Amino acid sequence: MSRGFSNTASQRQLRVGEEVRHALAWILERGELRDPVLAERAVTVTEVRMSPDLKHATAFVVPLGGADADTVLAGLNRARGFVRHRVAEMVRLKFMPDFLFCIDRSFEQAEHITTLLRDPRVARDLQHTDAADTGGDAETQNGRTAD
Asked: Domain limits at 117?
């Protein structure tokens, strides 16, 4: 019976992804990667998403300060064989996933949304919507409108 794939991860995918994230963070923190680009950069692993069969892992990373993201990403993808070997020593799984490293853009998106919400035009629209949700001002609540 086919379960089909959904957009939500199973508990097992989440649990394995978190274990793999901790292992990746530990490897990067200890400076075990010999790549000169990675040796001088601090990299944060924000999330690891596992495929439903746990054979593929997408690791979202952010270099400290966000500088040289493409260079760091290229270095991590060059070292993914070594990373896979080291994670296999730390996390016990039947099959070790193949890694794909991506830059995590969620912080940039959150900053963009915050900037939009602080825009005076958007704030005005939000205040207007809030007033309508609460029933408007006192005059419109009594059935009278301002002329």
From this structure: 109-134
CB 37 within 8 A of CB 71: yes
Running DSSP on this structure, what letter comes out for residue 147?
A: -
Instruction: Give pLDDT tens digits for 40-94.
Output: 778 888 999 999 998 999 999 888 876 788 888 888 888 888 889 998 998 888 8
Both 127 and 89 in one domain: the answer is no
Is 63 in the same domain as 113? no
Note whether residue 121 is domain-resident: yes
Question: pTM of whole model > 0.90?
Answer: no
Q: Where are the beta strands (DSSP E) in 64-144?
A: 98-103
User: What is the number of other CB atoms lying within 10 angstroms of the CB of residue 117?
Assistant: 10
